[in-house]
Design goal:
By secondary structure, this protein is of the alpha+beta class. The chain has helices at about 5-45, 205-215, 225-235, 240-255, 260-270, 275-290, 295-310; strands spanning about 60-65, 70-75, 105, 110-115, 115-120, 120-130, 135-140, 155-160, 165-180, 185-200. Helix 3 runs antiparallel to helix 4 (about 240-255) and helix 5 runs antiparallel to helix 6 (about 275-290).
């Protein structure tokens, strides 16, 4: 065999050996690599993966009360057939009042919660549930999520609220503001068959009376609407009716054909016990509201007149 032939034969044998070695390596390496990739995908959330909804979705609510606003942000776990209070949420232990992170609550105006003063600001809402009573905690530190870094020294205040049993099962933990008035509301924590209600109040009355006093000092700068609103505020809140009558008369001097203010005057006189005097403004308000087809005010005046004529 020539030297050239020998070289070609050696090259052929080398390539065959390399090919067999490559096949063996594929059989060993590829399955191992697949296992490594599968494990890495589970451990590293940055890799592509299937996403599912949160089991405890986030919720937020905002409610105007008087001149202020209450805002709440929290997470809503579900019952899912479990026993909640006394088991999943143990009695006598600090609870973040929701899931995932502590509940945040903020007030743009000073309020009271069950009679306890809370300055405007943002707070964390923690609770300690119990069978007979709950401890409600307004906490000043909102920088952490759970209860691990909680320090009692950072509490603004604590107070007691009584739980009550609900007739229906509430599947998802719910925080709601109900029974909203000009200066109050009920802040309710509801889950499973338990409801805890906290009375929230803001001093709207003081703010309004301060405006009225300022307005009374400088009546020349006030308009028709200011007299009318001030008179109606006194009427609806059981305040000085003589002052309300004075203001409503001043409003009628500016606009004697206002059926709304005429109704206010009739209502004020009726509250003062002057049913006879209330008839004239009530009848005039009814006639004007009928003429312009103000259906709601027609009904109000008809109801008022029926009471006056009893």
């Amino acid at each position: 065999m020539t030297a050239t032939g020998a070289a070609r034969l050696f090259d052929l044998k080398t390539r065959i050996h390399a090919s067999k070695l490559e096949d063996k390596m594929k059989k060993i390496v590829l399955p191992g690599l697949a296992i490594i990739l599968a494990v890495s995908a589970q451990l590293n959330p940055g890799w592509a993966q299937v996403e599912t909804p949160r089991s405890s979705p986030m919720a937020s609510l905002s409610q105007d009360i008087g001149f202020g606003k209450v805002e709440i942000e929290y997470f809503r776990p579900s019952v899912k057939g479990r026993v909640i209070f006394g088991r999943l949420v143990p009695y006598g232990e600090l609870w973040r009042t929701g899931a995932n992170s502590s509940t945040k609550i903020s007030f743009t105006e000073d309020v009271t919660l069950n009679g306890q003063a809370v300055p405007s600001g943002e707070y964390a809402l923690f609770t300690i549930p119990g069978e007979e009573e709950w401890t409600i905690i307004i906490h000043k530190d909102t920088s952490f999520g759970g209860t691990g870094r909680y320090k009692e020294e950072n509490d603004l205040l604590r107070f007691i609220a009584a739980p009550e049993e609900t007739s229906d099962l509430v599947e998802s933990f719910t925080i709601e503001l109900s029974d909203v008035t000009d200066n109050s509301a009920s802040l309710n924590l509801v889950w499973e068959r338990t409801r805890v209600s906290i009375h929230l109040e803001t001093d709207t009355d003081t703010q309004i009376m301060a405006q009225i006093e300022e307005f009374a000092k400088n009546p020349q700068a006030s308009l028709f609407g200011s007299y009318a609103r001030a008179a109606n505020y006194n009427l609806e809140n059981g305040k000085d009716l003589s002052q309300a009558l004075e203001w409503v008369d001043k409003a009628l001097e500016i606009n004697p054909e206002s059926f709304v203010v005429l109704h206010f005057k009739a209502s004020i006189l009726a509250e003062m016990g002057d049913s006879e005097g209330a008839l004239e403004p009530a009848e005039k308000s009814l006639a004007i509201s009928r003429e312009i087809n103000a259906t709601g005010w027609v009904m109000k005046n008809e109801e008022l007149l029926a009471k006056l004529r009893e």
